[in-house]
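hi! just following up on the protien thing from before. the input was this:
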Amino acid sequence: MNLVITISRRFGTGASLIAQELSEKLGVPVYDKAYIEHELDGDSYATEAEVIKGLAEHPCIILGRCASEILKDQPNVFNVYVCADKEDRIERIMKKESLSHDEAKEMLEKNDAERADYYYENTGKVWGDVNNYHMILDTTKLVTCEAGDIIQAGKFSVEFIHANHSIADAVSFAVKCPVGVVVHTGDFKIDPTPIKGKIMDLTRLGQLGKEGVLAMLADSTNVERPGHTRSERAVGASFDELFKGCKERIIVTTFASNVDRIQQIINVAARYGRKVAVTGRSMENSMRVATELGYTEIPQGILVDINHIKSLPREKICIITTGSQGEAMSALFRIAFSTHKQVDIQAGDRVIISASAIPGNENAVNNIINELYRKKAEVVSENAGALHVSGHACQDELKIIHALVRPKFFIPVHGEQRHLQTHARVAQEM
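and the predicted 3d structure came back as:
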């Protein structure tokens, strides 16, 4: 069954970021007001409801526009409502828009009123009624934590332990309660040469193991793979070989959440004198936030607006784009099928796919690759070399964690059934 998620939200709740993260995790596109109105401007649809029903024929996430009500009779739709405390939302708007408290409050109340009116006019129902949704998500108390922090909640405490993964600031958890300590690795690998930051805090895990751990939950994704997962730096060396001596335009697609991968693309582009243009909403947002927070360092003058690339020589252009999972209407999809406003594929373009297809997305990815070939582009995927490395530990890394933590009980998590059972067997054999 094709899952469609609708997200209704109050202004300032962070729902758009939640949608983007879900999109990355599930490998499905996000459609919002701007996209729906753009589709309505064409000749294919007469109403927004028709647009939304058309989008819901495939897995996706739809933000707002009464989608929960329009699709209420479809069994494959999951409706979410995102809310938060008013003062909490005002504070977020103040920080994001650089507004005073009164200005942010006015903006919030105006947007909330407009959304409530729109919902009632189109559905006859009260906006935000919990009975209209499958899940209510309250984002009020979002606490920023860092590795090394310990958060107390009644008789429970949660310690954040530095880990390596394909996202920034990955952590494992040590949860302490009256009956003992539970360690959850989260998604992780042991990267000996991370792009940014330090190696996973194995010392702390070892200390917890000596003190005594009641249970451990551990990532099982790559348990069937022997040895160790390659370092993220291996991808940088592959990029260098593909950029060196290339006289054509280069287009690279990868996960927008992998800021270390994006940094390596920028580094190699700068090394060979290429300007970098970015396309795809999640990629643009990810780079903006990563740069603001200091996770990405962009050499001065290297970024150019996607609208200006046609004025540059082909050998001086690198485009970083979304669409590594074949998402319908992602930037790479639109580029491949000649519907992107700024970028059209030209014969000889080198398209680098720096990602593995998430299970279930293989056909969508192949669809884009075939179209790129039809347009005489050169497509380079991970099969051609180390263009992608996993963010998950292989079997020998998992054994290291088991040896350090030494839990009394073990619960394999994050994987298909065969992964969970294989991991259980590995743990029993140690």
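The CA atoms of residues 19 and 91 lie 21 Å apart.
The radius of gyration is 23 Å.
cheers
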